[in-house]
Amino acid sequence: MGDVRFMRALGIRQVHNLAKRRYQIDDNTLHIPESALEHPMTLLPLSEINRWYETLESQSGNPDIILDICKEIELDKLGAISRWLFSGYDLASTFRRINHGLSALQSGAYLSGAQSGSILKWIYHNPFIEAQCKVHDSARIAIFMTKVLRTYLGEEFVPLRVMLSGSRKNVAKYEAYFGCEVEWSHSKTEVWFHSQLRLATHQKNRFTQHRLAMNFSDLDDFLNMPEPDDEVKVIYEVINYSCHYGLPTLERVSGLLGLSTQQFQRKLHAFGMNFTTVMGYVLTNSAANLFSKGVSVEEVAQRLGYQNCASFNRMFKKHRGLTPKQYVHHFQDAF
User: Fold this and answer.
1) What are the structural domains of the chain?
2) Is residue 112 within 8 Å of residue 123, measured between CB atoms?
3) Cβ pair 51, 17 in contact under 8 A
4) Which of 51, 83, 86, 298 registers the highest number of CB atoms within 10 A of its CB?
5) How far apart are CA 36 and CA 195, in angstroms?
6) Which residues make beta-bridge pairs with 157?
7) pLDDT, tens digit, for every residue of 176-222?
8) 278 near 235, Cβ under 8 Å?
9) What is the pLDDT, as a whole number, of residue 293?
Protein backbone atom coordinates (compact mmCIF):
# COMPACT_ATOMS: atom_id res chain seq x y z
CA MET A 1 0.00 0.00 0.00
CA GLY A 2 2.95 2.34 0.45
CA ASP A 3 3.16 2.66 -3.34
CA VAL A 4 -0.38 3.99 -3.82
CA ARG A 5 -0.27 7.49 -5.29
CA PHE A 6 -2.93 9.70 -6.88
CA MET A 7 -3.35 12.21 -9.72
CA ARG A 8 -6.29 14.56 -10.08
CA ALA A 9 -8.52 14.07 -13.11
CA LEU A 10 -7.65 17.53 -14.45
CA GLY A 11 -4.15 16.20 -15.22
CA ILE A 12 -5.47 14.00 -18.05
CA ARG A 13 -9.07 15.08 -18.68
CA GLN A 14 -8.42 17.33 -21.67
CA VAL A 15 -6.11 14.74 -23.25
CA HIS A 16 -8.72 12.02 -22.69
CA ASN A 17 -11.56 13.98 -24.30
CA LEU A 18 -9.48 15.28 -27.23
CA ALA A 19 -8.16 11.78 -27.97
CA LYS A 20 -11.69 10.33 -27.95
CA ARG A 21 -12.87 12.88 -30.47
CA ARG A 22 -9.86 12.68 -32.76
CA TYR A 23 -9.72 8.86 -32.87
CA GLN A 24 -13.47 8.26 -32.47
CA ILE A 25 -12.94 6.20 -29.34
CA ASP A 26 -16.08 5.06 -27.52
CA ASP A 27 -16.90 6.02 -23.94
CA ASN A 28 -15.50 3.82 -21.16
CA THR A 29 -12.96 2.08 -23.41
CA LEU A 30 -9.86 3.96 -22.21
CA HIS A 31 -9.75 2.05 -18.92
CA ILE A 32 -10.77 4.94 -16.63
CA PRO A 33 -14.57 5.35 -16.35
CA GLU A 34 -15.95 8.52 -17.90
CA SER A 35 -17.73 9.43 -14.66
CA ALA A 36 -14.37 9.61 -12.85
CA LEU A 37 -13.26 12.36 -15.24
CA GLU A 38 -16.37 14.56 -14.96
CA HIS A 39 -15.02 16.42 -11.92
CA PRO A 40 -11.50 17.84 -12.38
CA MET A 41 -10.54 17.25 -8.73
CA THR A 42 -11.35 13.52 -8.65
CA LEU A 43 -8.43 11.50 -7.31
CA LEU A 44 -7.34 8.74 -9.70
CA PRO A 45 -4.96 6.03 -8.44
CA LEU A 46 -1.69 6.25 -10.36
CA SER A 47 -1.96 2.55 -11.23
CA GLU A 48 -5.08 3.49 -13.21
CA ILE A 49 -3.17 6.31 -14.94
CA ASN A 50 -0.52 3.80 -16.04
CA ARG A 51 -3.20 1.56 -17.57
CA TRP A 52 -4.81 4.63 -19.18
CA TYR A 53 -1.54 5.59 -20.91
CA GLU A 54 -1.17 2.05 -22.28
CA THR A 55 -4.79 1.85 -23.46
CA LEU A 56 -4.63 5.31 -25.04
CA GLU A 57 -1.66 4.29 -27.19
CA SER A 58 -3.13 0.92 -28.18
CA GLN A 59 -6.60 2.33 -28.98
CA SER A 60 -5.19 5.14 -31.11
CA GLY A 61 -2.37 3.12 -32.69
CA ASN A 62 -0.22 6.23 -32.30
CA PRO A 63 2.96 5.96 -30.15
CA ASP A 64 3.25 9.77 -30.20
CA ILE A 65 -0.35 10.43 -29.15
CA ILE A 66 0.59 12.40 -26.02
CA LEU A 67 2.68 14.83 -28.06
CA ASP A 68 0.01 15.17 -30.75
CA ILE A 69 -2.83 15.73 -28.28
CA CYS A 70 -1.07 17.78 -25.61
CA LYS A 71 -0.11 20.39 -28.19
CA GLU A 72 -3.82 21.29 -28.24
CA ILE A 73 -4.22 21.57 -24.46
CA GLU A 74 -5.41 24.97 -23.22
CA LEU A 75 -4.03 25.96 -19.83
CA ASP A 76 -6.91 28.32 -19.11
CA LYS A 77 -9.38 25.42 -19.18
CA LEU A 78 -8.23 23.93 -15.88
CA GLY A 79 -10.95 25.82 -13.99
CA ALA A 80 -10.28 27.45 -10.62
CA ILE A 81 -6.89 25.75 -10.45
CA SER A 82 -5.62 27.59 -13.53
CA ARG A 83 -6.70 30.89 -11.98
CA TRP A 84 -4.71 29.98 -8.89
CA LEU A 85 -1.62 28.72 -10.73
CA PHE A 86 -1.44 31.79 -12.95
CA SER A 87 -2.31 34.36 -10.28
CA GLY A 88 1.33 35.41 -9.98
CA TYR A 89 2.29 38.71 -11.58
CA ASP A 90 5.35 37.34 -13.33
CA LEU A 91 6.99 34.10 -14.42
CA ALA A 92 9.12 33.76 -11.27
CA SER A 93 6.11 33.83 -8.92
CA THR A 94 4.11 31.47 -11.16
CA PHE A 95 7.11 29.15 -11.42
CA ARG A 96 7.25 28.92 -7.62
CA ARG A 97 3.48 28.47 -7.27
CA ILE A 98 3.37 25.61 -9.77
CA ASN A 99 6.32 23.86 -8.10
CA HIS A 100 4.65 24.07 -4.68
CA GLY A 101 1.17 23.37 -6.00
CA LEU A 102 2.01 20.08 -7.69
CA SER A 103 1.77 18.22 -4.37
CA ALA A 104 -1.94 19.11 -4.18
CA LEU A 105 -2.54 17.90 -7.73
CA GLN A 106 -0.38 14.79 -7.91
CA SER A 107 1.22 12.79 -5.09
CA GLY A 108 4.60 11.10 -5.32
CA ALA A 109 5.95 13.56 -7.91
CA TYR A 110 7.79 16.85 -7.65
CA LEU A 111 8.71 19.89 -9.71
CA SER A 112 11.74 21.97 -8.87
CA GLY A 113 14.19 24.43 -10.32
CA ALA A 114 17.97 24.00 -10.38
CA GLN A 115 20.43 26.60 -11.62
CA SER A 116 23.71 25.76 -13.36
CA GLY A 117 25.59 28.92 -14.28
CA SER A 118 23.27 30.97 -16.48
CA ILE A 119 20.98 27.99 -17.17
CA LEU A 120 17.83 27.28 -15.18
CA LYS A 121 16.58 23.70 -15.31
CA TRP A 122 12.91 23.03 -14.60
CA ILE A 123 12.83 19.43 -13.36
CA TYR A 124 9.99 16.92 -12.96
CA HIS A 125 10.36 13.52 -11.34
CA ASN A 126 7.75 10.83 -10.78
CA PRO A 127 9.19 7.46 -9.66
CA PHE A 128 5.75 5.85 -9.55
CA ILE A 129 5.08 5.88 -13.28
CA GLU A 130 5.77 2.45 -14.75
CA ALA A 131 8.69 2.10 -17.16
CA GLN A 132 6.54 1.53 -20.27
CA CYS A 133 4.54 4.68 -19.50
CA LYS A 134 7.37 7.05 -18.58
CA VAL A 135 7.72 8.47 -22.08
CA HIS A 136 4.04 9.46 -22.12
CA ASP A 137 4.11 11.07 -18.68
CA SER A 138 7.40 12.81 -19.42
CA ALA A 139 6.14 14.27 -22.71
CA ARG A 140 2.89 15.41 -21.06
CA ILE A 141 4.74 17.36 -18.37
CA ALA A 142 7.43 18.75 -20.68
CA ILE A 143 4.72 20.15 -22.97
CA PHE A 144 2.94 21.65 -19.95
CA MET A 145 6.19 23.29 -18.79
CA THR A 146 6.87 24.68 -22.26
CA LYS A 147 3.31 26.01 -22.57
CA VAL A 148 3.70 27.82 -19.24
CA LEU A 149 6.96 29.40 -20.38
CA ARG A 150 5.45 30.41 -23.72
CA THR A 151 2.44 31.90 -21.92
CA TYR A 152 4.76 34.42 -20.25
CA LEU A 153 7.62 34.70 -22.75
CA GLY A 154 5.70 34.53 -26.01
CA GLU A 155 4.88 31.73 -28.43
CA GLU A 156 8.27 32.09 -30.10
CA PHE A 157 10.07 30.95 -26.90
CA VAL A 158 12.34 27.94 -27.47
CA PRO A 159 13.97 25.99 -24.61
CA LEU A 160 17.73 25.50 -24.67
CA ARG A 161 17.27 21.75 -24.24
CA VAL A 162 14.60 19.25 -23.25
CA MET A 163 15.28 15.95 -21.45
CA LEU A 164 12.65 13.21 -21.68
CA SER A 165 12.26 9.75 -20.16
CA GLY A 166 11.90 6.71 -22.37
CA SER A 167 12.47 6.88 -26.11
CA ARG A 168 10.61 7.34 -29.38
CA LYS A 169 11.59 6.72 -33.00
CA ASN A 170 10.23 9.94 -34.45
CA VAL A 171 12.69 12.24 -32.67
CA ALA A 172 12.29 14.99 -35.27
CA LYS A 173 8.61 15.33 -34.40
CA TYR A 174 9.43 16.20 -30.78
CA GLU A 175 12.27 18.54 -31.70
CA ALA A 176 9.94 20.34 -34.11
CA TYR A 177 7.49 21.06 -31.27
CA PHE A 178 10.04 22.13 -28.67
CA GLY A 179 12.28 23.85 -31.23
CA CYS A 180 15.45 22.49 -29.67
CA GLU A 181 17.47 19.34 -29.13
CA VAL A 182 15.67 16.61 -27.21
CA GLU A 183 17.65 14.07 -25.20
CA TRP A 184 16.06 10.75 -24.29
CA SER A 185 16.16 7.99 -21.65
CA HIS A 186 16.61 10.33 -18.70
CA SER A 187 15.29 9.43 -15.25
CA LYS A 188 13.80 12.93 -14.92
CA THR A 189 12.08 15.38 -17.23
CA GLU A 190 13.93 18.68 -17.69
CA VAL A 191 13.31 21.88 -19.64
CA TRP A 192 16.31 24.23 -19.81
CA PHE A 193 16.23 27.99 -20.39
CA HIS A 194 18.34 31.06 -19.66
CA SER A 195 17.88 32.10 -16.02
CA GLN A 196 17.52 35.78 -17.01
CA LEU A 197 14.23 34.96 -18.74
CA ARG A 198 12.49 34.70 -15.38
CA LEU A 199 13.10 38.41 -14.82
CA ALA A 200 10.04 40.63 -15.21
CA THR A 201 11.78 42.65 -17.93
CA HIS A 202 11.58 39.65 -20.28
CA GLN A 203 7.88 38.99 -19.72
CA LYS A 204 5.81 39.65 -22.84
CA ASN A 205 2.33 39.00 -21.52
CA ARG A 206 0.52 40.59 -18.57
CA PHE A 207 -2.30 38.86 -16.76
CA THR A 208 -5.37 40.21 -15.03
CA GLN A 209 -6.06 38.87 -11.56
CA HIS A 210 -9.25 36.80 -11.42
CA ARG A 211 -11.19 35.69 -8.37
CA LEU A 212 -10.45 32.12 -7.38
CA ALA A 213 -14.21 31.44 -7.00
CA MET A 214 -13.69 28.12 -5.22
CA ASN A 215 -16.69 26.99 -3.18
CA PHE A 216 -16.46 24.98 0.04
CA SER A 217 -16.89 21.66 -1.77
CA ASP A 218 -14.11 22.54 -4.22
CA LEU A 219 -11.90 23.55 -1.30
CA ASP A 220 -12.55 20.22 0.42
CA ASP A 221 -11.52 18.42 -2.76
CA PHE A 222 -8.44 20.56 -3.27
CA LEU A 223 -7.12 20.02 0.26
CA ASN A 224 -7.68 16.29 0.03
CA MET A 225 -4.48 14.62 -1.17
CA PRO A 226 -3.65 11.63 1.07
CA GLU A 227 -0.10 11.18 2.28
CA PRO A 228 1.11 7.69 1.31
CA ASP A 229 1.67 6.66 4.94
CA ASP A 230 -1.87 7.71 5.91
CA GLU A 231 -3.30 4.33 5.00
CA VAL A 232 -6.84 5.01 6.20
CA LYS A 233 -7.18 8.01 3.87
CA VAL A 234 -5.62 6.05 1.02
CA ILE A 235 -8.18 3.28 1.53
CA TYR A 236 -10.97 5.87 1.68
CA GLU A 237 -9.96 7.45 -1.64
CA VAL A 238 -9.48 4.13 -3.41
CA ILE A 239 -12.98 3.05 -2.34
CA ASN A 240 -14.28 6.44 -3.47
CA TYR A 241 -12.68 5.94 -6.89
CA SER A 242 -13.93 2.36 -7.23
CA CYS A 243 -17.52 3.69 -7.00
CA HIS A 244 -17.13 4.73 -10.63
CA TYR A 245 -17.18 1.01 -11.53
CA GLY A 246 -20.35 0.37 -9.54
CA LEU A 247 -20.86 -0.69 -5.94
CA PRO A 248 -17.32 -1.19 -4.53
CA THR A 249 -16.26 -4.79 -4.03
CA LEU A 250 -13.60 -6.21 -1.76
CA GLU A 251 -11.81 -7.70 -4.76
CA ARG A 252 -11.65 -4.48 -6.78
CA VAL A 253 -10.52 -2.30 -3.88
CA SER A 254 -7.89 -4.84 -2.83
CA GLY A 255 -6.56 -4.94 -6.38
CA LEU A 256 -6.33 -1.15 -6.62
CA LEU A 257 -4.37 -1.14 -3.37
CA GLY A 258 -2.01 -3.82 -4.64
CA LEU A 259 -3.11 -6.28 -1.93
CA SER A 260 -4.80 -9.67 -1.83
CA THR A 261 -8.28 -9.69 -0.31
CA GLN A 262 -6.87 -11.45 2.76
CA GLN A 263 -4.12 -8.85 3.22
CA PHE A 264 -6.62 -6.04 2.87
CA GLN A 265 -9.04 -7.58 5.38
CA ARG A 266 -6.22 -8.06 7.89
CA LYS A 267 -5.19 -4.42 7.46
CA LEU A 268 -8.76 -3.24 8.04
CA HIS A 269 -9.00 -5.45 11.11
CA ALA A 270 -5.82 -3.84 12.48
CA PHE A 271 -7.56 -0.48 12.16
CA GLY A 272 -10.62 -1.82 13.98
CA MET A 273 -12.74 -1.79 10.82
CA ASN A 274 -14.23 -4.16 8.29
CA PHE A 275 -14.97 -3.61 4.61
CA THR A 276 -18.72 -3.09 5.04
CA THR A 277 -18.18 -0.39 7.68
CA VAL A 278 -15.55 1.60 5.81
CA MET A 279 -17.46 1.30 2.53
CA GLY A 280 -20.60 2.63 4.21
CA TYR A 281 -18.67 5.57 5.62
CA VAL A 282 -17.27 6.46 2.20
CA LEU A 283 -20.57 6.03 0.36
CA THR A 284 -22.59 8.10 2.82
CA ASN A 285 -20.07 10.94 2.58
CA SER A 286 -20.32 10.82 -1.21
CA ALA A 287 -24.10 10.72 -0.97
CA ALA A 288 -24.24 13.72 1.40
CA ASN A 289 -22.06 15.70 -1.01
CA LEU A 290 -24.36 14.86 -3.92
CA PHE A 291 -27.45 15.76 -1.89
CA SER A 292 -25.93 19.19 -1.20
CA LYS A 293 -25.76 19.71 -4.98
CA GLY A 294 -29.44 18.92 -5.45
CA VAL A 295 -29.08 15.37 -6.79
CA SER A 296 -32.16 13.25 -6.02
CA VAL A 297 -32.05 10.28 -3.66
CA GLU A 298 -32.86 7.89 -6.51
CA GLU A 299 -30.07 9.22 -8.72
CA VAL A 300 -27.55 9.15 -5.87
CA ALA A 301 -28.38 5.50 -5.18
CA GLN A 302 -27.87 4.72 -8.87
CA ARG A 303 -24.60 6.66 -9.10
CA LEU A 304 -23.21 4.78 -6.12
CA GLY A 305 -23.97 1.44 -7.73
CA TYR A 306 -27.09 0.31 -5.85
CA GLN A 307 -29.55 -1.80 -7.80
CA ASN A 308 -32.47 -0.61 -5.69
CA CYS A 309 -33.10 2.44 -3.56
CA ALA A 310 -34.24 0.44 -0.52
CA SER A 311 -30.78 -1.08 -0.01
CA PHE A 312 -29.21 2.36 -0.28
CA ASN A 313 -31.72 3.78 2.23
CA ARG A 314 -30.90 1.07 4.78
CA MET A 315 -27.16 1.60 4.39
CA PHE A 316 -27.46 5.38 4.69
CA LYS A 317 -29.67 5.28 7.80
CA LYS A 318 -27.29 2.81 9.47
CA HIS A 319 -24.38 5.23 9.13
CA ARG A 320 -26.13 8.63 9.39
CA GLY A 321 -29.09 7.89 11.67
CA LEU A 322 -31.59 9.28 9.16
CA THR A 323 -33.00 8.03 5.89
CA PRO A 324 -31.72 9.95 2.84
CA LYS A 325 -34.97 11.92 2.50
CA GLN A 326 -34.97 12.75 6.22
CA TYR A 327 -31.35 13.85 5.92
CA VAL A 328 -32.07 16.15 2.97
CA HIS A 329 -35.07 17.64 4.77
CA HIS A 330 -33.07 18.11 7.98
CA PHE A 331 -30.24 19.98 6.23
CA GLN A 332 -32.20 21.68 3.46
CA ASP A 333 -31.41 25.15 4.80
CA ALA A 334 -27.69 24.38 4.85
CA PHE A 335 -27.82 23.02 1.29
Assistant:
1) 6-202 (3.90.1520.10), 230-330 (1.10.10.60)
2) yes
3) no
4) 86
5) 39
6) none
7) 999 999 999 999 999 999 998 887 777 776 555 566 566 666 677 77
8) yes
9) 85
